[in-house]
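Hey, resending since the last one bounced:
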Amino acid sequence: IEPEETYEIITPKTLLIVVDTYQKRLLESQKIYEKCQRVVVIDHHRMAVGHIDNPILLYHEPYASSASELVCELLQFMPSQGNITPLEAQALLAGIMLDTRSFALHVGVRTFEAAAWLRSRGAQTADTKLLFNTSKEEYEARAHIVEDAYIYKGCAIAVSGELEPGMAVVLPMAANDLLTISGVDASFVAVAKNGGVNISARSMGALNVQVILEPLGGGGHLLPGDGLQPLHQLLNAGVQAGRRLAQPELLQAALVVQGGPVPSDEGAPGALQLPVLHLPPADGLQLGQDGGGH
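The structure tokens again:
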């Protein structure tokens, strides 16, 4: 059903369930949210500015591996007979595997309990794995981004021009691939999109990338300015956040993009030279939800 059709059938009794985001800006339809009087939010990202502020129920657990894990926990309180189909169980398992990188990161006892429950409801791990297969074109675009990445002070940073339509999945996949490189604690992948820049960030846990992106409104906030200005701001935000984390030496150096240096406060020596990214003047930066909390 299309958002336009949904808007026509909303009544005062309609219940809107928002999953895997707390940000109003990331909602598929702002009009639907504004018209619904009853809203439920299920999310595992850190709460920040711009969150939904009027839910009748908020199931928010930042330490959960994924929103799929939280949905599984809620479903287990419902009558077990026919409350979920094998296909739905498989989709939820895919969500857990995606956010945990196949149970490698951000997993806890509850994560495996949720996966076991989904398996008992008919989810097939082999079939779920097939859902992550990509086309040859997507694989080549992803490999190109990874190949051009720079490794600097424990961070992998890559920028790219605009991708072909339908290749949005390449951005987080490239960020995940960069984490497999020895010595990389966090990855930042910036891709031109619709006149702006979309950034996906990932971490192995040593660096909280959501804290780095929150000064930019991580999770979909748009900032005014030049198309490259967000890249300057990203690294500067990283410097500020890095001082509050376990490894303050990360990202504490000047950044040079198209000859424009952005020094850190402490004037750390050295500069990182990124490949030139030719972008038209943009309205701002969009940070995908996957850039938060990982």
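The mean pLDDT is 75.

Sorry for the duplicate.
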